[in-house]
Please model this.
Amino acid sequence: MSSSPPISSASVRSILALLTSRDALLVAGAEGLERRITWACGMRARLPAFDSIQGGELALLTLAKLRRLDETLSHLLTSLHKEGVAAVAVAAQSLETLGTEAVTLANHLHLPLILLPPLVPIEEIEREVIAFVAQQLMQLSIQGVGIAGICEYLAVSRGKWVVMQDAQYHTRSQAAPTAAKTLLFSDPLTDEFLRSHGLTRVVEPILIRHEIVGYLSLIGDEGTFDYAERLVVNHATPIFAIELARARERSEVEGRYHVEAFMNVLQGQYQNPEEILARVRHLGYDLTGPQIVVIFEASPNEEDITLVQWARRVREEMVRVWPTCWLVSEAQRVTVLVPIVSFQGEESQGETEGEQTLVTHIERLLTRLQQHRGNVPFPLFSCGIGRVAANVQGVPQSFREAQRAVEIGRRLFGEGKIHSFARLGVYRLLFYLDGQSELTNFYQEMLGPLLDYDARHDGTYVKTLECYFQYNGNLSQTARTMHFHRNSLIYRLERIEEILGRSLEDAELRLSLQIALKIHYLRHRDER
Model:
C-alpha cells in the first residue's frame, strides 16, 4: 500500500460544471475550487445531519430541512469544514436566505458554497455526483495506480474495507479505510465470517466478455450501507475488469517471452552464452551453475482439466523442493531445469552424485503425487531425467537425454516410473537399433539356438541364463530365485553350453549373451 492514497481527478470546479444544467451557482469559497471531490452525501432528517464523513465529500442539503433540525448554516459549515468536507451545496430560495454570515464564513474558510434551486431533487444530484466521481476511477487507472491503488482510493474515500477476489473467491487485493482496526479476513472471504464480526458487504462480479473473472466487495459495519455503495461498486467493477484484462495481457506477453527464452536455452538457440545468461538473469534465473533437465510427461488421451490440475501440482512440488528451479508447462508436459549445487564440474558418462540425489528426491515427489492421485482424478505420467549439464551450453544435451529417457523408459518399463538416462545403460543404443538387420542377425546368432530349444521343449533356458547374469554368476542366489536345487542349476547351465556350443567361461561370449538378452527384453517387453 502506498504512503498516500491516489487522488481523484474530480474537483469542485468539475462538479460545478456538471451541475450547470441544474442552475447551480457558486456564491462563496472560490479559492477552494480545485479541492478534490471523493464522494457526495445528502443531509439526514435527524441529527447528526451528516454521518460517516471521511473527508473530500460534497455535502448536499436543503435550507428548509436544516431549519427543521434547529441548526444554523454557519454552525454546520464550521463543523463540516473541520471534518474535511470539500464543498457544500444548499438548495434555497435565494442568496439572501443563506445569510451574510454563512457566505462570509465560507469565503474565510475557502470552502466552496454552491446555491441550488429550492426544488431541486437532492437525491438525484447526489446520484449524479457519485456516478461522476466513480467514473473518475478511470483516470486513476490511466494514471497507472493499478488494482491496489484503486482499492486504496475506494477504501479511503468510502471509509470501508475493499476486497477484490479472483473467480475462485481467493483474495487478490485489499485495502483498509484510514485508521481502521486491524482485521484479517478469511480466505476465501465468506458472509458467515463477516457476520461473526458484525460486518456486511456489497459485492458485485467483475466481468470480461461475459466471463466472471473476480468479485469486488465493499465491507463495513452493519447499518452503514445505502444505495450509494451499490452505485459505486457498479461503476468500479468495469474499471477493475480493465485492470485485470491488462494484467492478463501483460502476463501472456511475459509468459511468451519466458517460454521463448526457456526453449532457446533447451535447444541452444542463441548467439553466445553470455547473451543468453544475461537474458535469463533478467527473468530471475541463474544458469551459471550445473543443471539437470527433468521432464514430466502425462500419458496420451488424458482430459484437459485433469492435465491442468496435474501440471499445477507437479509445479508446486518441484518448486517446494527446488525453489530456484526454472520450469515451463505445455499441454501434457512439465519441463524443469533443476540446479545441482553439489556438482563439482567434472564431466561424467555415468550417474553423478548430484543425479543420484535428484533421482531420490524425484522418487519421493512421485510417491506424493501418486498418493494425491488416489483422492482426485489424476493422469498416469512418466518422468525422464537427463544427465548433468556443467554449464548452459550443455543443457540441450541434457534436454535430449531427458526426452529419450521418457520415450525409452515408457516403452520398456511402462508408465508411472522415473527413467534416468544414465541408468538406461545399453538400452539407449539398442532402442534405436531395434528393427535393423544387423541387430536381428546378432540376436539370432547369440540366442537363436536357445530360443529354438525352448520353443520345441517348452523350456526356460533363456530365462535361466538371464537370471544367472542378473546375479553375476552367483549359483546359490540364482538357484534360490529360480527355485532350483543348486545341482539342477549346474546341469541346466551345462546344457546351455552344449546347445550354444561354447563355454560360459568365455568373457566375450558372456558380454555378447548379455547384450542379446537385452535385445530379447526389448522385443518381448509387451509380454512381460
